[in-house]
Amino acid sequence: MLKYNSLTVPPERTVTTGVQSDTGSTLLDGLTPAQREAATLQGAVLVLAGAGTGKTRTLTAGVAWRIVARGVPASRILAVTFTNKAAKEMTGRIRNLLTGQAVPSWCGTFHGLGARQLRLEPEVATLRPGFDILDADDSKRLVKRTLKAMNINPAGAGEGPDPLKQICKRIATFKDNLITPDEAPGRVEAMIAQSQAAHGTIDPDGMRMAARVYLEYQRRLREANAADFGDLLLWPTKAMQRDELYRRRWAERFDCILADEYQDICYVQYAWLRLLAANHGEIFVVGDDDQSVYSFRGADITYIRRFVHDFPQARQVCLEDNFRSTGHILSAANAVIAQDKKRLGKTLRTIKALGEPIEIVGFHNPEGEAAGLVAEIKRRGGGGVAWEDMAVMYRSNHMSRQIEESMMRGHVPYVLVGDVGFYQRGEIKDALALLRLAARPDDFQSDEAFRRVCNIPARGLGPKALAEIQDEAALHDVSLLRAVETAKLPPKAKAAALAFVEAVRSAAPSNSGSLADQLSLLLDRTGYRAMLRDSRAEETEDRLENLQELVTLAGGFHNASELLDHAALASAAPGEATDGRVQLMTLHKGKGLEFPHVFLPGWDALSFPSNYGDHDEERRLAYVALTRGMLRVSITHVEYRRGFTRPSCFIDDIPTENRVIGWLHDQAKGSLPAVGIGARALAELDSLELSRQFSRG
After folding, report:
1. Alpha-carbon distance 371 to 389, whole Å?
2. Predicted local distance difference test score (pLDDT) of residue 664
3. Is the pLDDT assigned to residue 525 strictly greater than 90?
4. What is the DSSP pairing of strand 659-661 with strand 132-133?
5. Which of 88, 433, 495, 652 has a CA 20 to 30 Å removed from the CA of 380?
């Protein structure tokens, strides 16, 4: 049997055009010349689609054109993207273009199509028909059981705050790089040697342990007849590399391969696509190296930049007509990304007017920045801009806290996109439950709060003990907290429960201390804050910061009741409709979205570019941020954020003719947009005593 171990592409095969060129011409109605050219090209095609240039329209027109004008059967076309939402949109658009004709059945996500391939021939992964697919949580639990069976303490599994998560990530990375369990030990040793020779940083013990666990974990997957997400592409791709007959059998199923978001692919996706397209070279990919911002997920920008090397006969078409943004916005974005000397290169041009310049507004500190930003959002809302037409995008999740608080104080409706609101975060709900208990320890109203936190940290008050406490409370018609005192519990659990009751009662409201003092005392005496400090979970630092933020905020309220009411009415729950709400999100979550008004806080040197990210990728993230705006983009920065700082270097890249210092309405009034506007905005927004903490003095 022939073995296929190379990704070398054979000479391009000409695909027969089934129908004359005028057939299906209506499919191209409304396309720009560049979109039309891209959609109708044969062979290997790279569509370099800038932000807002209609890449999805071009891709779906390309699929429909191949079916209608070239006569390629829909069943012989494979079209792939990254998310179920994008796949659904792609299929819907193709169906609308084909008006009743069959659409490609092999249209979906990488994992979805890989799963279909694996289900048809599961033996390539030594699986049986009907195998289960484990989600990330199920996979993590299996890794945990594997560690226990191997007598490995996750705490010794390597560096990092969450060793179990680190092992899971390393196993996933092995699979994304086409490394099987048998190959992992040898590959790890080679990586360690290479890193040490280059004086790089690597965790040799953690890597070796991950390779050992990978082998046993995969054995347990096979034993359970199960696959995780990484298996769905790993084994079909490995089989195509190793077995030429298998590869040809799959490659010959399709006459055309089309891929979306090519800048975001990892190695296994890259290899899978190339192996499927190796016979005919009919591969059409759409992407933008300027928007490659997901390296932390395994995306490798190299593959889009080497496409014409991989397919020497490839044609490259640039989509540069932007339908989204005004001239000032695009000039700013073009100037920022032009500093990346490795990019493939294109220049976006608008079909709109010049529009308004980018506003650059400085503040003293993050609190003033958030307040000033919300004051401007309120001003625009009062001027007729719909709330849902405005978005606030920031580099890191933790930056949302001050903005959320200012939104709430200003009575501005908002929703967090792809994140949990401040008052919906687990640690915040736990802290508020403790506060409710301390405020009303003997009230039935506090029973739900007791149920939430009585066993955090663990005190032996599991379901059985809680049931005993509930029975005791019902018998004596008292609160659950009071029932602890007489409930019949095991000695150890009883002692821990009574200590919890004492901690709650000892932190009852008093005239001598503030609400912030009371909350801080509760977190310490109940052991909640210590539990987080002792945790090695990756999000520990963020959770502690969130608690400290809540303690600070509590200082602005007279009593627990005020704060609890404030939190209950705070914001939309995760997943709630975005209509009628300002949208808050990270820059990464904003990719692919667009808004008439975009606010970009935190553009100072201590926040953006991030110290943890690759500088070139941070620049691409700045480009993505700017190109989310349709009509206006406003950038803010601070003088002090955990230390004195200066404006981000990305602001310096924006040409002076495309930016203005301060809010545009201040320019019109002739006022000076100086640092310190945050204090004035706070005075407008804040009817609570909290404002005194944020004034500059």
Report:
1. 19
2. 92
3. yes
4. unpaired
5. 652
- Of the candidate CATH numbers 1.10.275.10, 1.20.1250.20, 3.30.310.50, 1.10.486.10, the domain formed by 424-568 belongs to 1.10.486.10
- CB distance 542 to 420 below 8 Å: no
Chain segment 394-414, per-residue pLDDT in tens: 998 888 888 988 998 888 999
Do the Cβ atoms of 334 and 33 come closer than 8 Å? no
Amino acid at position 456, single letter: I
C-alpha 323 chain-centroid distance: 25
Which of helix, strand or coil describes residue 554? helix
| CATH class of segment(s) 358-421+573-694 | alpha beta
Q: How many helices (H) and strands (E) does the chain have?
A: 31, 17
The H or E element that residue 501 is part of is helix 491-506
Q: How far is CA 434 from CA 134, 159, 464, in A?
A: 36, 33, 22
What is d(CA 276, CA 212) in angstroms, rounded to the nearest whole number? 32
Whole-number pLDDT of residue 350: 95
Residues of the chain with CATH 3.40.50.300: 25-119+233-319, 358-421+573-694
Contact call for residues 4 and 241 (beta carbons, < 8 A):
yes
Place of tokens 């941020």: 625
Q: Are 264 and 292 in contact (CB under 8 A)?
A: yes
Q: Which value, in Å, is the radius of gyration of the alpha carbons in the chain?
A: 29
How many angstroms separate the CA atoms of 246 and 5, rounded? Answer: 12
- Fold exhibited by the domain 132-224: Arc Repressor Mutant, subunit A (1.10.10)
Report the alpha-carbon distance of residue 113 to residue 135 in Å, rounded. 16
- Domain 25-119+233-319 CATH (choose: 3.40.50.1000, 3.40.50.720, 3.40.50.300, 3.10.20.600): 3.40.50.300
Helix (H) or strand (E) holding 597: strand 595-600
pLDDT the model gives residue 156: 54
CA–CA separation, 325 and 405 (whole Å): 30
* CA dist., res. 385 & res. 598, Å (int): 12
Q: Give whole-number Cα distances, 362 to 348, 468, 637, 645, 654, in Å.
A: 28, 58, 5, 11, 16
8 A C-beta contact, residue 678 and residue 368: yes
Q: Which residues are catalytic?
A: 55-56, 260-261, 291, 628
Residues 294, 264: contact at Cβ < 8 Å? yes
pLDDT in tens, 199-235: 777 888 889 999 999 999 999 999 999 999 999 999 9
- For 216-226, b where at least 16 C-beta lie within 10 A, e where not — what string? bbbeebbeeeb
> What does the alpha-carbon distance between residue 349 and residue 493 come to, in Å, rounded to a whole number?
69
pLDDT at 542: 77
The two most distant CA atoms of the chain are separated, in Å, by 88
Q: Where are the alpha helices (DSSP H) in 312-462?
A: 327-337, 366-382, 400-409, 426-439, 447-453
3-class SS of residue 315: strand
